[in-house]
Amino acid sequence: MNPVVVENLTVAYQKKPVLSNVSFEVPEGKLIGIIGPNGAGKSTLIKAILGLIPKAAGEIKIYDKKYRPKDRVVGYVPQRGSVDWDFPTNALDVVLMGRYGHVGWFKRPGKKDTEIAMECLKKVGMEKYANRQISQLSGGQQQRVFLARALAQDAKVYFMDEPFVGVDAATERAIIELLNELKRQGKTVLVVHHDLQTVKEYFDHVMLLNVNTIAAGPTEEVFTLENLTRTYGGKLSFLEKDQLIVEQK
Amino acid sequence: MSYESWILIVGSLAGVTCGITGCFLILRKLSMLADAISHTVLLGIVLAFIVSQSMSGIYMLIGAVVVGLLTAVGVQMLHHAGIQEDASIGVVFTFLFAVGVILITVFADDVHLDVDHALMGEITFVPWDLVQWGFLPELPKAFLMLSTVLVINLVIIGLFYKELKITSFDPQMAAAIGLPVLLIHYLLMGLVSITTVASFDSVGAILVVAMLIAPGASAYLLTNKLSIMLLLSALIGVSAAVIGYYLASWLDVSISGSMATVNGIIFALVFLFSPTKGLLSRKFTMKKLKMD
């Protein structure tokens, strides 16, 4: 059973369609890159799948069912810039938020949740910063805290919105190692990504998006010059350098 | 109890209640919406009077919640329809407040309320406005209302602490794990409405904004922990009320005005001298970094 199936999804802001007739399926236990130019609707796609924005039409199935948060099969890493890092809280507390769905109403996260949260911080190499105020962390460290929070959700499918943006090289390596670890555990990870040079190295599958689905499937089949040209259209000129790399690999 | 101690108690209660609720307004960047609600609840009070023909506390609280939520929902709807948020607040706020003002002038003969009183409050009269609730002895109405609202606020914030926290920090994540983000927003706006109306008699619609925002804004600059921020904000709210009262007696000026002024002075001091986030300490750190 495919963990994520999207059929004919259309999303519109005001009257302008941001996603139009998007259809794709992702296989279980793979790393999937969602690739496309700015304004292609990559973040919108994730938000629509998670029900954060209304869809105009289409079907979305997570493990063959309509997505319901209380099934707790989905973990989410929003864009780092979407929150105010000056919020009065520390790294451990943010990771604990990943447990809130498990804790339920009227209860506080318990000792067990704190242990899980600490473990998740350890997995991203941030256990030393557990009590650090989040505004005092670097961009890469903040991103790792967000990843740890998603791990604490203990999900089967993960959606990550641009986790590699604005992070240092060490964090990028740490993140990709973590993604591979999740894959080994049989989890499915969808990542919005826009560095074309690393696509072949990082992802098993890609989904090329530009308002419509351009192509989706195994990276070696789908990540071709022809498909990229169709995805990026007129912006080809500044793609050329990347294309060479694509071809060489 | 003496006249003076009633004023101190009522002022402190307003300080604590507003201080705690205000923290969430600051973290959610909703100060302007609070300003709007603090004015539109006037309409709620007038409507409550027209319906119930009394100035009873419970009707006032219900009226405040209804109109406060109407304000929040109206702003949300206009904003959702593509109007900028500040413009939505400006339109809804002034319209509902204006209707309130008109109704007050129409029913002026019956209502023990005038626009000045609603805007500025008059804490001086609080000790004489007594009511009798249930088995309790006759007590000042403002004291009973503020105590009730404080208890409601503490219970709601206690029950929904983690939900309020995550929806303030990361509403997208909160929605993704299935929390009713908008409902929690309205719940908080309900708290703001009853807080405002309970503080109305004492400090009025304009100064209540100072009591809602200033203590939380000061506390925000003093700590990195939400629970401590709530505590500090409550403490600052009380201090401002007490210091404000004595300052007013000493200078023989408006008590509520003096309380709000002290709130402003405390904020200014914290803004300058907070050990971690103050202007001076930040300047100092920058200088040190340059030297290194």
UniProtKB/TrEMBL annotation, chain A:
InterPro entries: AAA+_ATPase, ABC_transporter-like_ATP-bd, ABC_transporter-like_CS, Metal_Ion_Import_ABC, P-loop_NTPase. Residues 4-236 form the ABC transporter domain. It comes from Cytobacillus praedii. CDD domains: ABC_Metallic_Cations. The lineage of its organism: Bacteria, Bacillati, Bacillota, Bacilli, Bacillales. This is Metal ABC transporter ATP-binding protein. Pfam families: ABC_tran. Keywords: ATP-binding, Nucleotide-binding, Transport. Belongs to the ABC transporter superfamily. One of its GO terms (molecular function) is ATP hydrolysis activity. The keyword Kinase does not apply.
